[in-house]
């Protein structure tokens, strides 16, 4: 598979890029070089390799969901610059 000038023009159009003729030629060469490098992966023998989603084994490391006492409203509002009716008071964002 190789990238053509038409392919580069199509991708540039999708990305809403205006490319000069020189840039189109440059990107065509660069994209073909990337594909040629990626084709080296086809040379690897992967017959005995299991498909994986990660290189390393990933396990769930989340803790148990345990109910614990929380901070009181008075403690939470202790350093608040302004509060009203037990809630943080902030400047209005919308008019």
From TrEMBL:
<comment type="similarity">
    <text>Belongs to the GatC family.</text>
</comment>
<comment type="function">
    <text>Allows the formation of correctly charged Asn-tRNA(Asn) or Gln-tRNA(Gln) through the transamidation of misacylated Asp-tRNA(Asn) or Glu-tRNA(Gln) in organisms which lack either or both of asparaginyl-tRNA or glutaminyl-tRNA synthetases. The reaction takes place in the presence of glutamine and ATP through an activated phospho-Asp-tRNA(Asn) or phospho-Glu-tRNA(Gln).</text>
</comment>
<dbReference type="InterPro" id="IPR036113">
    <property type="entry name" value="Asp/Glu-ADT_sf_sub_c"/>
</dbReference>
<dbReference type="InterPro" id="IPR003837">
    <property type="entry name" value="GatC"/>
</dbReference>
<comment type="subunit">
    <text>Heterotrimer of A, B and C subunits.</text>
</comment>
<keyword id="KW-0436">Ligase</keyword>
<protein>
    <recommendedName>
        <fullName>Aspartyl/glutamyl-tRNA(Asn/Gln) amidotransferase subunit C</fullName>
        <ecNumber>6.3.5.-</ecNumber>
    </recommendedName>
</protein>
<keyword id="KW-0067">ATP-binding</keyword>
<keyword id="KW-0648">Protein biosynthesis</keyword>
<dbReference type="Pfam" id="PF02686">
    <property type="entry name" value="GatC"/>
</dbReference>
<keyword id="KW-0547">Nucleotide-binding</keyword>
């Amino acid at each position: 598979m190789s990238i053509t000038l038409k392919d580069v023009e199509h991708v540039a159009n999708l990305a809403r890029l205006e490319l000069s003729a020189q840039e189109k030629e440059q990107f065509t060469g660069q994209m073909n070089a990337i594909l040629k490098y990626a084709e080296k992966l086809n040379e690897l023998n992967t017959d005995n390799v299991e498909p994986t989603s990660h290189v390393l084994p990933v396990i769930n490391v989340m803790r148990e969901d345990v109910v614990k006492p929380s901070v009181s409203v008075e403690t939470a509002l202790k350093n608040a610059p302004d509060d009203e009716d037990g809630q943080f008071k902030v400047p209005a964002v919308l008019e």
